[in-house]
Amino acid sequence: MKYDELPAWSAKAAAWAADYHATLRERPVRPNVNPGEFLNQIPAEPPQLAEPFDNIFADFVKLVPDSMTHWQHPRFFAYFSSNAAPASMLAEQLANAISAQCMLWQTSPAATELETAMINWLRQALAIPESFRGVIQDTATSSTLAAVLTMREKALNWRGTKEGLAGMPTLRIYASEQTHSSIDKAVRLAGIGQNNLVKVKTNSEWAMCPASLNSAIKADRHKGLVPAGVIGCIGGTSIGASDHLDQILKIARDNKLYSHVDAAWAGSAMICPEFRSIWKGIEMADSIVFNPHKWLGANFDCSIQFLKEPKDQIKTLALKPSYLETLEQDRIDNYSEWCIPLGRRFRALKLWFLIRSYGLTGLQEKIRNHIEWAGQAAEEIGKLDNFSIVTPPMFSLFTFQFSPPGDDPDKKTRELIEAINADGRIYLTQTLHDGKFVIRFTIGQFDTEKSDVDMAISVIQELAESLN
Predict the structure, then answer these.
(1) Last residue of a domain, one of 295, 311, 345
(2) pLDDT in tens, 407-425
(3) 283 lies in a domain?
(4) pLDDT at residue 330 above 70?
């Protein structure tokens, strides 16, 4: 393909995309395919000669969509949604056209400074104090790993990056049982070790118990271990649990421990003032992560990490070889120094398009709708025969079980979710909570309407009756 062919093919791709989204409700949310079925349709060897682009595009249309799980489907109620508002998609197309490597200010002045502006916009939208700055990462996993590495280096007085970890004190990180597996991964990759991630017990609200956190820190110090950091949770992945940040972050601060808050999903809800009481005390955090690509409408990948003192993370992660120096420029931000990768994409553009296209009011309306509809759905499912709500709605997530009399609830709930996802009209996923196999129901897809939620309840009831 040549550049003069690009306008026609871009128009064709845009027309296909519009039709795809217009007809998503007619497709099953998950494809009816077996492992290897798609792979067998792709030639085992690469072509020696160039192929006509008509053939390439035709094969895409014929093979790919029907072998994909449709994350933009309005009846995608699984995991947490990974959204893609049209304005964000268009911005991504333009960013791809420019194809900049945005590692330094001098390699991407507009991208760097737009990132600064978008971080500031989102900081204001979430009512985070003006003293915080931030950076756009790819995912919350990277943001959390950066925070854990900073915890490690502060606790070791930045000796780990220079001397290695051999012979260093044993470090301890504290988090609740409701935190995401990315916390476990960060502790492993940082060389701290899985056994040194202390999962602090939770209370009846599934929030980290402050007294237990305090006791764990004191006990570890008594044993000669070195507490390094505390990780708080807002909107945990399993059931949506949140810690009482005003209590646990104070404990971290009193013990001079670096703190990080994982609000990857639920952080987006904080653009609505009425939900901010849930993360009361957030201003005490050293690091905060939330993902606009989950609930705010930015297409993947786009994760925001706010930092109270960026210099600590920069000191941990930055390398400045001479070939990356920006000569004659002292007062600039090179965001690659805030991150693990050197290479960076132009992610700020989609935030700029998205926020301007919908405004905070439009984005707030979507989140408020999702939370209201989740409450209504939990109430309706709880009224169905043989159903019980296991965990109540937290933001827009709740869990339930299907337990006909005389049957094993875990077994019947598993049968139900298998029937639901084989049916294809909706898509749900499961989790284990307090030893129970439960179904998660979360609303967050950008184009979901109340009618989609109502249909989901009908499908659940219909398939449950068929199992009975």
Answers:
(1) 345
(2) 999 999 999 999 999 999 9
(3) yes
(4) no
338 plus 366 within the same structural domain: no
Q: Hey, what amino acid is at 447? A: D
- For residue 295, the tally of other CB atoms under 10 A from its CB is 31
Peptide bond into 301 cis (omega under 30): yes
Answer yes or no: is 240 within a domain. Answer: yes
Confidence of residue 388 (pLDDT cuts 50, 70, 90): very high
The domain that holds 35 is classified in CATH as 1.20.1340.10
Question: Could you tell me the two tokens for 434?
Answer: 């307090």
| Distance between CA atoms of residues 342 and 115, nearest Å | 16
Give the span between the Cα atoms of 264 and 182, in whole angstroms. 11
Q: 123 is written with which tokens?
A: 């900081």
Residues with Cβ < 8 Å from 78, sequence gap 6 or more?
A: 29, 427, 428, 429, 440, 442
| 306/132 Cα distance (integer angstroms) | 6
Is residue 145 in a domain? Answer: yes
Residues 326 and 394 in one domain: no
Q: What is the per-residue pLDDT for 336?
A: 86
Largest CA distance in the chain: 77
User: Which stretches of 302-429 are DSSP H helices?
Assistant: 310-317, 348-383, 409-423
In the structure encoding, which two tokens stand for residue 188, read together? 């492993």
Which amino acid is it at 18?
Answer: A
Res 218: pLDDT: 97
Cα gap 307→456, rounded to integer Å? 40
337-351 residue pLDDT tens: 889 988 899 899 999
Q: Which pLDDT score, from 0 to 100, does residue 393 have?
A: 96
Q: Over range 21-44, report the average pLDDT.
A: 93
Give the three-class secondary structure for 269: helix
Q: Check which CATH number belongs to the domain holding 242 and give it.
A: 3.40.640.10
Q: Give the span between the Cα atoms of 236 and 419, in whole angstroms.
A: 26
In this structure, are 61 and 197 located in the same domain? no
| Residue 394 φ then ψ, to 5° | -120, 115
At 290-326, the pLDDT tens digits run 999 999 999 999 999 999 999 999 999 988 776 677 7
Domain span holding position 384:
359-467
Please give the average per-residue pLDDT across 235-246, as a whole number.
93
User: Cα–Cα–Cα angle for 33, 38, 43, nearest 5°?
Assistant: 165
| Residue 308 pLDDT | 96
The whole-number average pLDDT for the span 108-115 is: 92
Could you tell me which residues come within 8 angstroms of residue 175 by beta carbon, excluding any fewer than 6 positions away?
A: 183, 197, 198, 199, 200, 208, 230, 231, 232, 233
Alpha-carbon span 412 to 54, nearest angstrom: 49
